[in-house]
Amino acid sequence: MTNTNRPNILMICTDQQRFDSLGCTGAVGAHTPNIDRLAETGARFSNCYVQNPICSPSRASLFTGMYTRNHGLWANGVSLPPYRKMFTRALADGGYDCGMIGKQHLSACEGWQTEARLDDGYRVFEWSHDAIHRSPQNAYLNWLAEHHPGVLAGIFPDEGHPSNAGAGNQAKDPTPMNTVPVEAHFSHWVAERSIDFIETQRNPAEPFFLLANFFDPHHPFGAPEEFRAKIDASKIPPPKRQEGELAEKPARQTAYSEKSYAGAAPGFVDYTDEEIIELRANYYAMIALVDHEVGRILDALDAAGQTENTLIVFTSDHGEMLGDHSQLLKGPMLYDACTRVPLILNWPGVIDGGTVHDALVQWIDLSATYLDAAQCPPLPAGQGRSLLPFAKGEPVADWRDFALCEYRDSGHPGVEPVNTTMLRRDAWKLIVWHGDGSGARPMDGELYNLDDDPDEFENLFHRPEHIATRRRMKAELLDVIAATDDLSAERLGCD
Known about the structure:
By secondary structure, the protein is an alpha/beta fold. The chain has 15 helices and 17 strands. The strands form four sheets. An eight-stranded mixed sheet has the order 5-4-6-1-9-11-2-12, sandwiched between helices. Strands 14-15-16-17 form a four-stranded antiparallel sheet, with helices on one face. A hairpin with a 2-residue loop joins β15 and β16.
């Protein structure tokens, strides 16, 4: 019998996975049977946008339900202010047993630092940013030390210096981080610990929330041989790009094609066509590995008799350019490749299976969805809305008709600031490349009609016949920003 009263919630989150990288989204060459099964028996949202195309700011929007400029974590290396309440805290206060395995990334964790624990409501917290951040609290490295000491020594061949510590290593020289044996891989560890939570660690007297945070398919790109073998590189389509298209795009895009991710990694121009295809094949191999481990988690959930009363969510924190528009990795580019992510909701007996919803939804909606399912009050400052009515096939009134993404100098420090803002409304997408306010660096932008140009090749921003649309979208963007300011502070008076 299906119990629809306060379900368990299992959130499976990957890192840097594009919206179009699954078999169920039409990805040619992808191998994702387990995730596809979730879509076949659940609801898929085809137009889910994140609020920032970089890890930490995007994840902060997930946990707080707030837009980037409101929650205060605007870049990697910045920590979420401690006064921002997270949905996990609200779930714990509402009687949920909460666990987290893997990458959280709500605090600075560079070099030898360790991500600080917030008062986040987790009873089980097994943190590891990735394999290269060596610290006594890196649960993955501690697990390797116990179960696979030889692999750990391969990752750290000399004292204190990881062999794979460069963001620039993308395909030409795969690193130990992603090419270790499957049984010692970070993704395998996430599944192992998630299975242990389901089987032995959870409190059976309470519903649980479990966040399984995979690092894959984040760069550096590489995968164990058996999963690379599942991907036929000859079937991988080339990047979506046109010769000469960057001439009509903001100049920064040309610069980023030469040096990726705020100048921290090699650019698209450093790769041959064959190397780009191999990079893409490695990316899909990493996703195939994640899919395999997701299957193991789902099997454990089923064996524990918990599937029927569990809301399962699969998603990712942002996308990856993967050579599209002559770009790699992430950064200020607000193409769909970076800002649009997969989103699947599965809840047997409650959510209609095999449905696809094309409404504009956002990552801030997930916290509201979880609290709605758990019958907990919404976050006081939350700006999202529950997606359950969509997923259940119920009528949804007055749903917002826009998606907003804000990049605020969110890349590596020490480079010239870049600030971009995206508004998607109906078929139109406006991206503003903000100036510096002095006029020394003027505003530039992009404008696309996604009905006519779904691949975002033709920038209409400067074309005379589209000036009226550009002006209208810029005015609408100002209205959206004003309407989405954080006004949650209690007004006490003193008129």
